[in-house]
Design a protein that fits this description.
5 helices, 5-stranded mixed beta sheet, mainly beta, globular
């Protein structure tokens, strides 16, 4: 009989044991449990681990399904699907079940012929409100979204709307029938799985015209063709453009867990926070002015964003191409950064004890280079970083998994240090300057220019926090991504043609 993730004393921690992410003395938090070779695929690109547990039911849908599911059906569904992996490859999606409570065969679903030779670059797990015991998998190939029912093993819907390749799929943490997609067409689209696709345009009119506009994806609208088939409908579009939206590809997004907010980030170095409406009665909502926008948090493209609390976010950026002292021929790459910052404007838009207004609109200083943020921590990232994943554990800690070509570095966000602020210069009397002697030493050429002195202190950045490192045997530089599950007790590493499952190692 195949060993289950729940077997062995190494998997389920005793309540008296300190979790590895709270134990600085734990040098080896995980041990390799299983490897799955995927020699039949050309390359793996992304993965998503089944995200829910028995304790998740109380937080989903504001507890509306507690009475209906708490007696046993929810527990059985969790037992059936815990540890299941969805993996995006070239032309197909793989579903690999890891639970042994009800043995299931792996599932491979090919994308339609018109999208062949297109990698599946984004994937996520969703739950429909009407049938919460049948999880769905949302994935993208090119600019098309597909909805897979892994229980039935068939695609039950596909949706179009984006005018460029989709870069990420993000599921709402408490209402998992809502999901959003980000795209290289500068927009973010929010979908509702409880609705069916729109078969005719439902766009607003642009005065002086009195008929619906058919501007299409570049304007955040629906074109003349049907939206798709099956399940799902776009209910809101966060538009790009100089009026306040992203001015380059949008790379990632994150729903706020309790408020109608979504954070996005992209190739334009900007982090934006938007208010959104998911009400189908109002038709397709179109927003082009966020409540917050800043491109001064990072120096390069911002690859990921996640919420840590009501008003605190964590983002990470790619290495930045810089010039040394303004010389055109002397360029170098500066390390990317992991930044934690607080959005100061949250209390202004959502005052405590007051109802949320139907329309939230900031001013120009909010959606054009807002200053309503405070940097808490800024840490350097290795330039070989390939993927960053943030997850919350059962204890409330946030764990950061940073994927390198051959290993995974794990951090507890609570251990991140504040930024190092440059000290004020000492007060002293300046000596009188001899202008005549200084003028004699002026040279018009730079042949004898002084050598650059090494920088020993990086002001504005934080010291490196404590970390745990997991070396992936045989990776040979092919590690693509890593994700954490089971409240931090399970680690999954994805290589180009192999998956490794790691379990927590207890003392």
């Amino acid at each position: 009989m195949e060993e289950s993730l729940y077997d062995s004393d190494q998997v389920v921690a005793d309540d008296s044991d300190t979790p590895w992410f709270q134990d600085p003395a734990r040098s080896k938090p995980f041990t390799l449990f299983k490897t799955v070779d995927l020699d039949f695929v050309e390359e793996c690109y992304c993965t998503a681990l089944f995200p829910w547990s028995e304790q998740s039911l109380g937080a989903l849908w504001y507890g509306e399904k507690d009475k209906e599911l708490q007696d046993g059906p929810w527990t059985q569904m969790i037992s059936d699907w815990s540890g299941a992996l969805a993996i995006g490859t070239l032309d197909s999606l793989l579903v690999i079940p890891l639970s042994a409570s009800r043995p299931r065969k792996g599932l491979s679903v090919s994308v339609p012929k018109q999208e062949q030779n297109t990698p599946v670059m984004a994937v996520g797990w969703a739950l429909p409100f009407e049938a919460p015991l049948e999880p769905l998998i949302v994935f993208s190939a090119g600019s098309i979204i597909y909805i897979l029912n892994p229980v039935k093993g068939e695609i039950i819907g596909h949706l179009r709307g984006h005018g460029g390749p989709i870069t990420s799929v993000v599921i709402h943490p408490t209402h998992p029938y809502l999901f959003c997609t980000t795209s290289r067409d500068f927009t973010t689209r929010i979908y509702d799985l409880t609705l069916s696709p729109q078969q005719s345009p439902d766009n607003p009119c642009w005065p002086p015209s009195k008929v619906s506009s058919l501007g299409g994806a570049p304007h955040g609208l629906q074109a003349s063709e049907p939206e798709g088939m099956g399940v799902g409908r776009c209910v809101s579009v966060l538009c790009g453009g100089p009026s306040g939206g992203h001015e380059a590809a949008v790379l990632s997004a994150a729903f706020h867990p309790t408020h109608p907010l979504i954070a996005t980030c992209g190739l334009d170095r900007a982090v934006k926070i938007w208010n959104f409406s998911a009400s189908p009665s109002n038709g397709l909502a179109r927003e082009d002015k966020p409540l917050f926008s800043s491109s001064r948090i990072h120096k390069a493209r911002v690859i990921s964003v996640s919420w840590l609390s009501t008003d605190t976010l964590i983002t990470h950026s790619a290495p930045a191409l810089m010039r040394r002292r303004g010389r055109k021929d002397d360029i170098y790459y500066e390390d990317g950064t992991m930044t934690i910052f607080r959005w100061i404007g949250f209390d202004r838009f959502f005052p405590a004890g007051q109802e949320i207004g139907r329309v939230l609109r900031g001013c120009s200083s909010d959606y054009h280079e807002s200053s309503s943020f405070t940097l808490i921590s800024t840490s350097s990232l290795p330039q070989q970083t390939r993927h960053v994943h943030v997850t919350q554990t059962f204890t409330g800690d946030y764990i950061l998994a940073l994927s390198l070509p051959d290993s995974v570095r794990l951090y507890n966000v609570a251990n991140f240090h504040p930024r190092v602020i440059a000290p004020d210069p000492p007060e002293r009397d300046l000596p009188e300057r001899d202008i005549e002697s200084e003028f004699k030493n002026v040279r018009l050429d730079d042949e004898e220019e002084e050598e650059d002195q090494p920088i020993t202190t990086f002001f504005g950045k934080s010291p490196e926090p404590q970390r745990w490192e997991v070396l992936v045997p045989g990776a040979q530089g092919s590690l693509q991504a890593s994700v954490l599950g089971f409240g931090g007790q399970l680690l999954v590493t994805l290589e180009k043609r192999r998956v490794c499952i790691w379990r927590e190692m207890l003392r």
